[in-house]
């Protein structure tokens, strides 16, 4: 396995008096493609926020958390190494910003560009390259509050990619997207995965799991329920237990579907 992206050892996180993550142990290699699947409220988003240092684990005996081999980080340095894609980032935008400003803001771990940010020619050049890579050049001068959710997700991916991160962290990537936008998003993510960008995705939606993702971690009630190859875990029996109701699973063209 390549150098570890993250190594959780007996990690627990409390939010609002509730243990949202409970004794989680897992290791993910840099460059590895992994999906974390589970029902709403199982702790998936908290796991991402623990990686990005928005949440901190309890200090308990035997507990440790390292990211890229380090236990302590300057949070802004860390976020320059990880590309974060979450709908919550759009909700934090408090002013009208353009698509170009959204992508540029990835250099500063901000949402939008502030007057005190110093933008170099290299940053502008890389932003334009990323916009073209994602087929989003036409969105550069559009305001974020005037584009579709699918277009906004594309720009969020651009924001995450502009500083050449070691991995993309995607939190429920297809939320609020219609069928066409979700297909477009998956096409983009597949290209990035094949180009070598590590993908760590949390989702409750089975079709989000790209064919390039082989490993799946099932999360239930804040605990790792199972961890292994998707062909072994994405089964009717496993997922019926995970979601607590009878389900059926089908596979087509490398994608799994649940009903």
Quick tags:
single chain; 259 residues; alpha/beta; Rossmann fold; 2 domains; six-stranded mixed beta sheet; three-stranded antiparallel beta sheet; 11 strands
What can you see in these coordinates?
The protein is of the alpha/beta class and 259 residues long. The chain folds into two domains: 1-68 and 167-177 and 197-259, Rossmann fold; 82-165, 3-Layer(aba) Sandwich (Rossmann fold). The protein is built from nine helices and eleven strands. The longest helix has 16 residues, at 179-194. The protein is globular and about 50 Å long. The model has no long low-confidence stretch (mean pLDDT 92).
Biggest sheet: strands, sense, closure? 6 strands, mixed
User: Which of globular, elongated, flat, extended, rod-shaped describes the shape?
Assistant: globular
Rg over CA atoms = 18 Å
Helix content: 25-40%
Mean pLDDT across every amino acid position: 92
Write the CATH fold name of the largest domain: Rossmann fold
Give the CATH superfamily of the largest domain: P-loop containing nucleotide triphosphate hydrolases
